[in-house]
Amino acid sequence: MFHYIEGELSEGEGGFAVVDAGGVGYKIYTSEASREKAGKAGGIVRFYTYLHVREEAMDLYGFISRFELTLFKKLIGVSGVGPKTGIAILNVAGAEELAAAINGGKPELLTRVSGIGKRTAERVVLELKDKIEPPAGDVVGIERMESEQTIIETLTSLGYTRGEAREALEKVNKETTEFEERLKEALKGLGRSNSKL
C-alpha cells in the first residue's frame, strides 16, 4: 500500500517513530538502527514501509534503508517469526551483519535475541541461507560480524544503547580491522557526541 513515507520526524521513542506527512502523523515501528539514523525531531526522513494487517489492527513498519526492509520481510516470511520478532532480530546487529550470519549458517548469533530459541534460529538460517543478497560492495564477513557484536556488547555494558553503539561503529574507518583499534575509534566517536565516559 505504501512504498515509502517521507516527512518531518515529529517524535519517536523506543521501537517507533512518528512521521508527519501531509498533516498525518504516521506511527512507524522500526529498528534501533533506523531510529538512530532518522536523527532528531524536526528533520526530514524517509522510511521504506511494510503494512502488516491483522484482524484487530494495521501496523506500519518502516526502515531507513531498502535493504533492511527487504531483510525484515524475509524474516517475517519464516514460520514462527512475526513482525515484533523480526524487529528484535534486526536489533541484534546491522542488516548487513545479520545477512552475513544467516548466509554463513550461524544460527547461534541469532539466539542473542530475547525470545528466539535455537529451533527458530535454525529455521531462519535454513530457510534464508543464500537467499539474502547484501547491497553491492557491502558484503560483511562472519569474523567482522562477530567482532562487531562483541564491540557493541562492550559499549552497551558501558551504558550506551545498541543504536548508539552501532552508529559509532558505522563511523569507524572501514580499513581499521583490529578489534582494539575499532573499539577505541568507536569510543572516541561516542566521547565526542556525549560525556558518558
Mind sketching the topology for me?
Layout: E1 4-13, E2 16-21, E3 24-29, H1 32-38, E4 44-53, E5 58-63, H2 66-76, H3 83-90, H4 95-103, H5 118-128, H6 142-157, H7 162-170, H8 179-193
Parallel strand pairs: 3-5
Antiparallel strand pairs: 1-2, 1-4, 2-3, 4-5
Helix pairs in contact: 1-7, 2-3, 6-7, 6-8, 7-8
Based on the model shown, name its key terms.
19% strand; OB fold (Dihydrolipoamide Acetyltransferase, E2P); DNA polymerase, domain 1; 5-stranded mixed β-barrel; 197 residues
What can you tell me about this protein's structure?
By secondary structure, this protein is α+β, with helices and mostly antiparallel strands. Helix content is 44%, strand content 19%. The protein has 8 helices and 5 strands, in the order E-E-E-H-E-E-H-H-H-H-H-H-H. Strands 1-2-3-5-4 form a 5-stranded mixed beta barrel. The radius of gyration is 17 Å and the shape is globular.
Quick gist of this model?
The chain has a five-stranded mixed barrel with strand order 1-2-3-5-4. It has 197 residues and is α+β, with helices and mostly antiparallel strands.
Strand content: 15-25%
Run of helices and strands: EEEHEEHHHHHHH
Task: Tell me the overall shape.
Answer: globular
Specify the CATH architecture of the largest domain: Beta Barrel
How many domains would you count in the coordinates? Answer: 3
- Rg: 17 Å
Helix content: 40-55%
**Count of strand segments:** 5
